[in-house]
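Weekly puzzle thread! Below is a chain. First person to post its structure in token form gets bragging rights.
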Amino acid sequence: MAGRMRVSITLSGLGRLLGPSLSGVIETAALAERAGIDQIVAPDHLAIGPRTDRYPYGRFPLPPGEPWLEPVVTLAAIAGATQRIRLGTGVLIAPLRPALLLAKTLATLDVLSQGRVDLGVGIGWQAEEFSASGVPFEGRAARMDDQLRACRALWGGGPVSFRSPTVCFDDLVCLPRPLQPGGIPIWFGVAPTARNVARIAELGAGWLPIGSDLAEIARGVRSLREAFAKAGRDPAALGVRANAPSLDALPALRAAGVTIAAFALARFARSRDELRPFLERVGALEREPR
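Winning reply:
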């Protein structure tokens, strides 16, 4: 895809980087904005259970004692300390939130941030989080579809009625509406199966690859662009945010179809003193197509 590649920072490893002063995440986001970084991303877990060995994507990347800030609250605080940088979730475990609450909190954040929100969603992998929240673990993907369709309906301004197997309401008005035309862009952190490709083509602005294999990412991008075209959407509009393995990985990521290179703080910075130099290096990366 032609055009300037954007860069993103994921707020991870905060226990090691910030210690007990987690409010330093706001200063970190402000530093990222001043460095020219395009997006700040907050990950999500309500709690971590004892069975991280069940993590389906390899070794769980962080220790059990790592603090996980609630992403929407965190991004709201960051919104008040920044003006330009986009605010992303990566990924919000959407089925843990009721549809109406999800619609309201994200629309509020979008309005207060002047239209800077990117909603990255996934279905989660920890059964313990779901059972502790009183939410069924089974069927969570279908429930996510229902809730996101409901959010899009509610973001239209209403009054609106909605019917699905798991979300139903009549004549509701949910204001404020998101500031962004068409509602908040939804990005899906899912494997590029046929069902997920169809899900993104229907509801999504972008894809968040789970793995880092560039050949697999490229195949997923091709499938998604084909699905966009079949759905009457512009294939060039597909966004792809993928984890960057190194600071010099942008050309390879771009060749695979990635539009946003994501750098996880836990991977690249070892102490608080390294945050500013690292953010400045990322912000200064050459991002124009060659």
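Puzzle host: Confirmed. Bonus trivia for everyone else. The two ends are 11 Å apart (CA to CA).
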